[in-house]
Amino acid sequence: MGSAKNTSNAQRKARIEEMRRAERSRERRNRILTIAASVVVVAGLVVGGVVLVKSQSDDKDTSASDSKTSSGHFVTGTDGVKTWKGKLGRTHVTKTVDYPMEPPVGGDHNQVWMNCNGDVYTKAVNNMNAVHSLEHGAVWVTYNSKASDADVKALAAKVKKTPYTLMSPVDDQKAPIMLSAWGKQRTVKSASDPDVDKFFAEFVQGKQTPEPGAACTNGLAQ
Question: For 134, phi and psi rounded to 5 degrees?
Answer without folding.
Answer: -60, -40
